[in-house]
Write a structure and sequence with these properties.
Strand content: 5-15%
Order of helices and strands: HHHHHEEHHEEHHHHH
Number of strands: 4
Low-confidence stretches: 202-220
Helix content: 40-55%
Largest sheet: 4 strands, antiparallel
Number of domains: 2
Structural class: alpha+beta
Oligomer: single chain
Distance between the termini: 59 Å
Strand order of the largest sheet: 1-2-3-4
Mean pLDDT: 82
Length: about 220
Amino acid sequence: MKHWNNITVEEYQLIYSIILDEEMHELDKEVKLIALINEISEEDLNKLSLSELKKYKPSLEFLHNGKIEGKLKQKIEANGRTYLMSLDAFKIDYGQYVDFTTFSSSNEGIVPNLNMIMASLAIPVTKNWLGIEKIGKYGDIKHNVVATDMLQANFADCYHTAVFFWKLINDLTKATVHYSVKQILKEKKVTKQKLREILKPLKQDGDGFTTLNLLRNLNQ
């Protein structure tokens, strides 16, 4: 039986698409979800009576309780590979940042693009014959290959990791507005170029300060 500890990104993306399908009858949705969660074929479920089918309904409760049980993970196991997640906003390169913001700001939302978002944060980790880990670089494995790997990663852990970094980036932007760009640069908390890269793709923070205004400050 599936639960948060063993649902992959690919499986939850399918679950998500079923739940949001406005054209599908609710009973058909239920059958498809029960089949997926309980790892039973739809053909076998269709042979059951409605009363027998209802016995499986409790297995879906965790999908509707509003809580995704997972953890922020520094390392993600995906499709037989290990990836170290770049969770320091000041250490990712501009290419990573653009990839992350592109996929995380999609109108579709985080879930349909989660494997692409995670691939934007992933650094491959390999081991030599002594078992010593070697951390690679972003781009050592093509983004689309990593994104395919991430389809097999645990959904709940990937979701919490992606949301953590998304909040980090947004909180950093708000903190920059309130603390002042000049003060951050004066105290050498971050270089002007890195701050420019962090702010550039973002449009507006919660208080109405535009990225354009912040970038103007960097030119002063």
